[in-house]
Write a structure and sequence with these properties.
2 copies of one chain form a homodimer.
Chain A (H helix, E strand, L loop, with lengths): L11 H11 L16 H19 L3 H6 L4 E2 L2 E2 L3 H12 L18 H14 L1 H20 L2 H12 L3 E6 L15 E4 L5 E11 L8 E9 L10 E7 L1 E3 L5 E4 L2 E6 L10 E6 L6 E4 L6 H37 L22 H33 L3 H37 L10 H8 L9 H10 L8 H17 L6 H27 L2 H4 L3 H26 L4 H29 L14
Parallel strand pairs in A: 3-6
Antiparallel strand pairs in A: 1-2, 4-5, 5-11, 5-12, 6-7, 7-12, 8-9, 10-11
C-alpha cells in the first residue's frame, strides 16, 4: 500500500448514509443468507474499497484513458499499473464479493458489493470495467452453467485467474439481436464450432489474466428465426484440460480494435471466430435459450451501467465542488470595488446552482441504483415469499429506469461539472471532461435509452397485470406517510402524493392506447415516459433521504440533503408533472411526422 | 476545384428559405449601403461557399481534428490541406466579405456573410476558426484603429495575408478580466513594451499567413484598478516597416500548447510577451479604453459563437438524418415476424423523435443567429434613424441569447445525433462525436453561460429603461397578427401571445427584485431567465418560419417546418412557460444553500 490515498468519491459519509441510514442494510444481516457477516465486516470491506480505489484506481485513471491500446499479432498489452490495480482488487476478494460462499465468493449483500463497485467506478471506470465484465459473465454461469462448466470456467473467474466478456453485438446487429449471424455447428464430441464476427466487444483480449472466457450469442443450424433461435456459448481464449491445465489456443481472435469517444481505458475489440482454425464453444444450458439466459444477466448489467453512470456523476460533482471552493475568481454583482479580494467561485450564485443540480442528480442516482441492489438482496435473502416475489417484480420494472435515468441525467450533470471549471473543465488536465466522455456511452450500451423505454412501457409495466406500478406506488405511499412526521417535508409529501395518482393514471392511459391505437403509435413517447417515471422514482428516493436527514441532527450534511431534496422537487419534479400530463394527451406532434418532412 | 463536392450543411433550400423567404434579405439591396449587389451576386456567393466548403473544408474535418499540433522551437506547422482550404477561402474573397468596399472588402450584408460562415463552420469548425478570428480582429481595427493602423494591420488581414487573434484570458483570469496582469509600458518612440502571459489563445502561432496580428488586453502603469484600467494593443508576430515590408521578429512567443476536448483543429496556445527580448505593442485608441473596444467586438464574437453552435447542430442533425434513412435495423413493435425485412431506423418512433427535436433546435438556432445578423445589417444600412437605433438595441439585448441558446441546446442536439447512430455515434469513424465535443466549448468561450445570464438580466434588459424587451414584444405581436391569417397556426399564436405578456411581466418582477433584494440574490436565476428568454425568442422565429411555410405550397419542406414549429411549441415552449412562472416566484431553493451543505 502507498502511504497516501488519493481522495475518492463518493464521500464516505454519503455512502454510509445511503447504505446504513436510508437502506438500513444491516437488517439484511439478520437473514440466514447473510448471517455470516456483521456490520464490522461491511465497514472493513468498504474501508478496503476506498483504500484500493484511492491508492491504485484513481491515480491511474488519466493514464489509462490516454493509453493507446495496440493490436500486436493478436495480442493486446495493458499498462503495468493496471495489472497492479487489478491484482489489488482481486487479492482483496472483490471479484468474488457477490458470489455464494459455496462457489468461493464472499456472499456479501449485493447492496454492499454495488457500493464498493461505485467507489471503484468513480475512481477509474475503465479499470473497473474489466472486473465488472468478469463478474457478470461468472454470474451468468452461476445461474445457467452445469457443474462442470461452473468448476472449469466460473471458479477461476471468481478467483480472478480468468476474466470474462459478453459478446452480443455484431456490425449489422447492434440493438437488433434477432439479426445475429454468428454460427455454431455441433461437433462429434458434443462441443460446437463457431464462425462469424462480433463488434464492440470490451476486454476480449488483454494480458491481465491467464485466460479469457467469452460468452457468445450464436445460432445453431436448426435455429428458428429471430431471437428465439439464439443460443449461448462459452468460447474461451485458451482451451482447458479436465484438470484445469491451460491447453491450446482456441481460434477466437481479435482482428481489430475500436476507438471510442470515452471509456477508452478498456480495450474494445472486433472478435473473429474460426477464421483460420477451429473455434471450440460449449453450449450453456439448452439450445435456443440464449436470449433468456442473457437477459437474466442483462438486468444485472443494466443496473450496473446505471451504477457506473451515477459514479461518474458523483465523481464529477465532488471534483467540481472542491475546485469551486479552491478557485478564486471574480466578485459578487453587488461588489463594484475592483480592489476587494476575489471570491471563491462557489460563492457565485450560478456556480452554486450548477453544484446543487449536480448534487440532486448524482446523489439521487446513487440512491436509485443502491435501492435496486437492495431489492436484489431482498429477492435473494428474504424469508418471506411474498416479499421476495415483490422485490423481484420491482427489480424487473426498475431495471430500465436504473439503467437510463442516471445515464441520461448524467450527461447533464457531468456537463455542468465542466461548466463549473470553465476553460479548465474543457482541458484533459482535469478529470471532468473524461467523466463527460465516459458518461456519453451509458445511454447507448447494454440497450439504448430507446430500447429501455420500449422495455418499460411495452413490457415491464404490463407484467403481472401491472402489479409493478401498484407495488411501487404502495411503497411510495408508505414512505410519504412516514415523511409526514416532519413538517419541513409537507410540500414534498404533497407533490409526491400527486404523483402516486398521476403516474398510475398515465400508465393506464398509455397501456390502453397500446390496445386501441396499436403499439407503434402508443409507444411513440416511451422514452419520455421512461424519463418521467425515473424522475418520480428518484423524487421518492430523495424524500426517503430527506426523511432520514430530518430525523437526524441538523448539521450541514443533513441540511444539504433537505436542500437538495427541495431543489429536486421544485425544479425536476415540477417539469415531470407537466410531462406526465402531456403524455396522457397522446399528442400526435411526433407520430404525424413523415420521414420526408425531416 | 475537385470534380465532386462532399455534401455540406445546412441543406441549400434551408438556407435559401431562411435568408430570402423569412428574412427577405433582398430588401436590403434597396438601401444605398448594399446597392452594389443584386440577388444574383448573393446566390453566386452562396454557391461559392458551398463549393469551397464541400471541396476543401468538409473532407479535411476529421484529419484536422486528429492533427497533433506540435510546438517546435516556437513554431507550429499546420497540415498542407489546411493551407489549401484557407487559400481557397481567401481567394474567393470570404475574408473581406463583411468589410466596406473602401477597406478592400465586398461590403456584403452581414446576414449573407454569416450564412456563408455557417456553411464553412458546419463543414469544418476548426478551419473556419482561423478565418473567424482574423475577421473579428480586423473588424476591431476597422472600428478603433487609426488610419495608419488600419492600413498597416487591417488591410493585410482583409487580404488574407495576415491573420489575427484575440488575446484576453490569462491563467488566473478567465471570466474575470478585471484581474488581467499583462503589462504595457510606454517607450520613447510612442510604442509600448509588453510583458506577461496569456492563456487559451487560439491561432497565435501557425504557418498559414505572413504575419499574425495579436490584439492584446494589458494594463498601463498608471491604470486604474479593474476593468477600467485595461487597454488594447496590437502585438504583431513580426514588426512591419512603414512600406509594409515584414521586419524583425517581435518577442511575442508561444511557450506552450493547450489540449482540449474539442475544437482541436485550431491550435490553442500559451502566449508570452517580452520574456527574452522586447515585445513591441501599439496602443489602439485611447488608454484604458480596452474593455469598451473589446466589447464592441465581443457582440460580434458572441453572435459568431452562437452561429458556430447552430452550424454544429445542423451538421449533426443532417448527418444523423441521412444515417437513419440508410441504416436498416429492427422492426416496428407491431411486427412480430422475425423473417420480415428490417426497417430503416428512421422508421422507429423514438429515432424520429430524436430527429425532430434536433430539427427544432438546429433550424431554430439558425433562425435566431441569422435574425441577429440581419439586425446588424439594418443597424448599418437602414435609412430610417429610429429603425437603425431600434435594431442596435435589439442586437444588444439578443447577443447573450444568440450566444447561449444555440450553444446550450446544441449540447442536447449533438448528443441526440450520437444517440441516433448508437455505438457508431460514439466512434470517431463518424463525425457526430466530433460535433458533440466541439459543441461543448461554446457555452464556455467568449463569456460563459453564467456571464451571459448576468449580462442579459443584470444589464441588457435594463438598457434604455427596458426598451429592448418592449421592442421585442412589439415585433412578436406584429408577427403573431400576420400568422393569424393561417388557421393552422392558431394554437402557436395563442401560446406566443401569452408569452408577450408573461416575459415582460417576469422581467419586471426580476428587475424590481434587483432593487429590493439586491443583485446577488435577484440574479441567482439569471441563467434560467436567459434560457427561458431564448426559448421564447426562438419560438417566435419558428412562428415566423411557419407563417412563411403556411403561405407557400404544401410540399414536404413546408410541412416539415409546420411540424417542427408545432413540436417546438408543445414540447419546448410549454416547459418554458412553467419556468417563467416559477422564476416570478423568486424561489429561494438555490439562494438559501450554504457552501457547507453542498
Amino acid at each position: 500500500m502507498l502511504a497516501t490515498s488519493t481522495s475518492v468519491s463518493p464521500r464516505r459519509r454519503e455512502l454510509d448514509f445511503q447504505l446504513f441510514d436510508v437502506l438500513e442494510i444491516d437488517k439484511l444481516l439478520a437473514t440466514p443468507h447473510f448471517a455470516e457477516h456483521d456490520r464490522a465486516t461491511l465497514d472493513a470491506i468498504l474501508d478496503a474499497a476506498y483504500e484500493i480505489a484511492g491508492d491504485y484506481f484513481a491515480p491511474l485513471a488519466a493514464e489509462l484513458d490516454a493509453f493507446d491500446y495496440k493490436l500486436d499479432n493478436g495480442n493486446v498489452a495493458t499498462p503495468a499499473r493496471l495489472k497492479t490495480a487489478v491484482r489489488a482488487f482481486i487479492d482483496a476478494g472483490f471479484m468474488g464479493a457477490s458470489f455464494l460462499a459455496d462457489d468461493g465468493g464472499l456472499q456479501l449483500p449485493s447492496t454492499l458489493s454495488s457500493a464498493a463497485g461505485l467507489v471503484f467506478a468513480a475512481a477509474n471506470g475503465s479499470a473497473n470495467s474489466y472486473a465488472f465484465l468478469t463478474v457478470g459473465a461468472a454470474h451468468l454461469l452461476a445461474a445457467f452453467g452445469d457443474d462442470e462448466q461452473r468448476e472449469r470456467w466460473m471458479k477461476p473467474m471468481i478467483e480472478g485467474r480468468y476474466f470474462g466478456t459478453m459478446a452480443l453485438s455484431e456490425a449489422q446487429a447492434g440493438s437488433a439481436l434477432a439479426e445475429v449471424q454468428t454460427k455454431a455447428v455441433p461437433a462429434a464430441d458434443g462441443t460446437y464450432r463457431l464462425s462469424g464476427n462480433k463488434m464492440w466487444i470490451s476486454a476480449a483480449e488483454h494480458d491481465l489474466s491467464e485466460n479469457i472466457v467469452n460468452l457468445v450469442l450464436a445460432k445453431l443450424p436448426d435455429a428458428p428465426p429471430g431471437v428465439k433461435g439464439i443460443s449461448l456459448f462459452i468460447v474461451p481464449k485458451f482451451l482447458v484440460d479436465a484438470d484445469g491445465t491451460i491447453g491450446e489456443r482456441n481460434d477466437v481472435v481479435v482482428t481489430g480494435l475500436n476507438h471510442k469517444l470515452g471509456q477508452r481505458g478498456v480495450v474494445n475489440t472486433v472478435l473473429t471466430f474460426g477464421e483460420t482454425g477451429e473455434c471450440v464453444g460449449y453450449l450453456v444450458g439448452k439450445p435456443h435459450d440464449g436470449m433468456r439466459q442473457m437477459f437474466h444477466m442483462m438486468n444485472e448489467a443494466r443496473i450496473s451501467v446505471g451504477a457506473g453512470a451515477a459514479s461518474l456523476s458523483i465523481a464529477a460533482y465532488e471534483y467540481s465542488l472542491q475546485y469551486a471552493k479552491d478557485r478564486p475568481q471574480g466578485r459578487l454583482p453587488s461588489d463594484k470595488n475592483p480592489l476587494s479580494p476575489q471570491v471563491a467561485i462557489v460563492e457565485h450564485p450560478d456556480v452554486r446552482r450548477m453544484l446543487l443540480e449536480q448534487k440532486a442528480i448524482a446523489e439521487g442516482g446513487l440512491a436509485l441504483v443502491l435501492y435496486c441492489a437492495h431489492l436484489v438482496d431482498i429477492a435473494a435473502a428474504s424469508t418471506d415469499d411474498a416479499e421476495r416475489r415483490n422485490a423481484e417484480l420491482l427489480v424487473d420494472v426498475l431495471t430500465p429506469v436504473a439503467k437510463t435515468w442516471p445515464s441520461e441525467r448524467g450527461i447533464v450533470s457531468t456537463s455542468l461539472a465542466i461548466q463549473v471549471l470553465g476553460g479548465y473543465g474543457y482541458s484533459p488536465e482535469y478529470p471532468v471532461e473524461r467523466h463527460f466522455r465516459d458518461q456519453r456511452l451509458n445511454p447507448i450500451h447494454e440497450g439504448t435509452t430507446g430500447i429501455q423505454g420500449l422495455d418499460l412501457l411495452g413490457r415491464k409495466v404490463r407484467l403481472a397485470d401491472g402489479a409493478g406500478v401498484t407495488l411501487l406506488v404502495a411503497a411510495m405511499r408508505a414512505d410519504i406517510a412516514a415523511a409526514r412526521a416532519h413538517a419541513a417535508l409537507a410540500e414534498e409529501c404533497d407533490r409526491l402524493s400527486e404523483m402516486t395518482t398521476l403516474l398510475p393514471d398515465v400508465t393506464k392511459t398509455l397501456l390502453q392506447a397500446q390496445i386501441e391505437l396499436g403499439p407503434d403509435r402508443a409507444l411513440t413517447e416511451a422514452t419520455a415516459y421512461l424519463d418521467a417515471f425515473g424522475t418520480v422514482v428518484v423524487a421518492w428516493r430523495w424524500l426517503v433521504m430527506a426523511t432520514r436527514a430530518a430525523a437526524a441532527a441538523a448539521d450541514d450534511f443533513n441540511s444539504g440533503k433537505l436542500a437538495a431534496c427541495r431543489y429536486f422537487y421544485r425544479y425536476e419534479l415540477r417539469q415531470t408533472k407537466a410531462s406526465l400530463e402531456h403524455l396522457a394527451m397522446l399528442d400526435d406532434s411526433i407520430a404525424s411526422v413523415r420521414t420526408e418532412m425531416l
